[in-house]
Design a protein that fits this description.
By secondary structure, the chain is α+β, with helices and mostly antiparallel strands. The protein contains 14 helices and 23 strands. The protein has helices spanning 22-31, 48-60, 86-91, 99-106, 125-133, 164-174, 190-202, 233-245, 261-269, 307-314, 334-340, 370-382, 393-398, 402-408; strands at 4-7, 13-17, 39-42, 63-68, 71-75, 108-112, 137-141, 144-148, 156-158, 180-184, 205-207, 213-217, 225-228, 249-253, 273-277, 280-284, 293-295, 320-324, 344-348, 351-355, 364-366, 386-390, 412-415. β7 (137-141) and β8 (144-148) form a beta hairpin. α5 packs parallel to α6 (164-174). The protein is elongated. The chain starts with a strand and ends with a strand. The chain binds uridine-diphosphate-2(N-acetylglucosaminyl) butyric acid.
Length: 416
């Protein structure tokens, strides 16, 4: 099994360009099942998860072609299947996002139930609540889940929690439902706005994406378009933390700073100098990193997908920091791994208390999920000796060319 090795590195310096957002690309690729003409997607990050959803689309009958490394052409005019194979579903939870498009496009969809995953049970009740409200019949048996509807009819749906995936799935299902659908307490993430923009370019009629109330007027048919995926705010945030933790000076390119306001604010609190200029953000790490507190929340709050990376940073800040995780119930698995490297962290329910230490020490560690893996890379940059990270397939699911990007900034990182 390949490992990523990280050695104590000099302060990172230079420029890094972030890729398109994984969490935008996945729903937009799923939404490509809705269009009956050619769709061209640009700035698609070349990631394991993207490959998996492309396989899902192909298995359903779509033609998927890479025009170059980050451009994909999709034609879904001839969707033949409505069942997502178990092997693909089990590789990636986000495969579930094809349900909404299939339901509205061909009136039926069947897949295996996504299980829990490392970061929590992650139920799909809200997705199903939305499908039912639109008139679908839901059938769960032997671990499979099917949704069927001769005709979907718009309705008003209140989400008990602003789930990103449920908002996306219901929004996609509603594009061709009869009449108007309103999603209240909708997720407001930039990735929702990107998906709505894409769907509108295909001919959908969606208003209010980016607010907590999204209105979708059903249309007869969706066509084709060319669309560029927005930059990955979490990848940007990860490199910004890398600048902070190594006390370096890094310019992160291809960013939308308004998407990462909480990350910028918290990095300023730990003492970083941050300059925003067009699509570039320059982060200069301070000599003296100060402790801070974070609480993860749905957008526009502090992103749960940056929690692990901040915990790595807090491990070497001066003083005591507190992290409260409110989005997922079990997203502290990186704590044990960081402790193996000498971090002083205690967990109390949803909170982690981090007492900054002077030094971390390289150790063999495991990436328990994608962002946990990123946190271990960050910790490895400042730990004495070598950090040997196992289970790096998690990292490859969400970061494209991670070693090359870090190496270009002066980091000592390689695969073995
Ligand atoms: N939830 C429910 N019922 C549902 C749906 C969600 O209770 O029907 C709960 C979940 O159990 C969880 C919370 O709501 O506790 C948030 O889940 P959400 O549905 O918002 O997340 P998601 O759509 O499954 C996406 C990202 C995640 C990111 C979350 C939160 C994609 C493909 N994934 O997941 O990304 O953490 O939103 O922002 O967009 C990552 O990139 O590392 C990652 C995990």
């Amino acid at each position: 099994m390949e490992k990523i090795m990280v050695e104590k590195s000099p302060p990172l310096r230079g420029n890094v360009r972030v890729s398109g957002a994984k969490n935008s690309a996945l729903p937009i690729l799923a939404a490509s099942l809705l269009g009956t003409e050619d769709i061209i997607l640009e700035d698609v990050p070349r990631l394991k998860d993207v490959e998996v959803i492309c396989e899902v689309l192909t298995s359903l009958g779509a033609k998927v072609e890479f025009l170059d490394r980050e451009t994909i052409k999709i034609n879904s005019s001839n969707i033949k299947n409505y069942e997502t194979p178990y092997e693909l579903m089990s590789k990636m939870r986000a495969s579930f996002l094809v349900m909404g498009p299939l339901l509205t496009r061909i009136g039926k969809t069947k897949t295996s139930l996504p299980g829990g995953c490392a970061i929590g049970t992650r139920p799909i009740d809200l997705h199903l609540k939305g499908f039912r409200a639109l008139g679908a019949e839901i059938d769960v048996d032997h671990g499979n889940i099917g949704a069927y509807a001769d005709k979907l009819v718009g309705d008003r749906i209140y989400l008990d929690f602003p789930s990103v995936g449920a908002t996306e799935n219901i929004m996609m299902a509603a594009t061709m439902a009869e009449g108007e659908t309103i999603i209240d307490n909708a997720a407001m993430e930039p990735e929702i706005v990107d998906l709505a923009n894409f769907l509108n370019k295909l001919g959908a009629d969606i208003k209010g994406a980016g607010t907590s109330s999204i209105r979708i007027k059903g249309v007869e048919k969706l066509g084709g378009t060319t669309h560029s995926i927005i930059p990955d705010r979490i990848e940007a945030g990860t490199f910004m933390v890398a600048a902070a933790i190594t006390k370096g000076d890094v310019v992160v390119e291809n960013t939308i700073s308004s998407h990462i306001k909480p990350v910028i604010a918290k990095l300023r609190e730990v003492g970083c100098e941050i300059y925003e200029n067009g699509d570039k953000i320059r982060v200069i790490g301070p000599d003296n990193l100060k402790a801070t507190d974070i609480k993860t929340l749905p957008y526009p709050g502090f992103p749960t997908d940056m929690q692990a990376q901040f915990m790595a940073l807090m491990s070497v800040c001066n003083g005591t920091s507190v992290v409260i995780e409110t989005v997922f119930e079990n997203r502290f698995m990186h704590v044990d791994e960081l402790k193996r490297m000498g971090a002083d962290i205690k967990i109390d329910g949803k909170s982690a208390i981090i007492q900054g230490v002077d030094e971390l020490a390289g150790a063999p560690v495991k990436a328990t999920d994608l962002r946990a893996g990123a946190a271990l890379v960050l910790a490895g940059l400042v730990a004495n000796g070598v950090t040997e990270i196992e289970n790096i397939y998690h990292i490859d699911r969400g970061y494209s060319n991670i070693e090359e990007k870090f190496r270009n900034l002066g980091a000592i990182i390689y695969r073995k």
